[in-house]
Amino acid sequence: LMMREARTLLKFSCEVYKLQHAEGRVFLHEHLTSAKSWEEDAIKQVQNLPGVRRVMLDMCRFNLKVKTTDGEKLVRKPTTLLTNSKIMADCLSKRCNGAHEHHPLKGGSLCNQAAIYSKEFCISPLKSLSLHLSNVNSSYGLSPFIDYQKLWGEN
Question: Which of these, 38, 49, 37, lies nearest to 7 by C-alpha position?
């Protein structure tokens, strides 16, 4: 039942992405790189739209950590994005540079912790969307010069 519900939600999301794309608006889809959903026809249809990019990132680059008995540790958590914004794809596709260690995601509580987005990852699409919108002469009102991290902390 859960897989059927998940597939229904994925198909619905993909229909929204296609509408966004057809109307010249931006969409951003995120899921684990290893997720089976990347093989679904609905996702493949969106991925094959003109100008859509599929990029990878490592969540350690967005400060994703888990709490262990030895304190907080970074986790890699390879993640894939699908978007029709080149600027967003370029800004968000940060791969690990190998300058730190990663804690393995083994065990239910660690996986549950890693399922929660870091503040840095939540803010990053805002920054890249701001840059996208400022480069398409948009009047949506997002500025690439806003300190979204500070704004997040104040609210």
Answer: 37
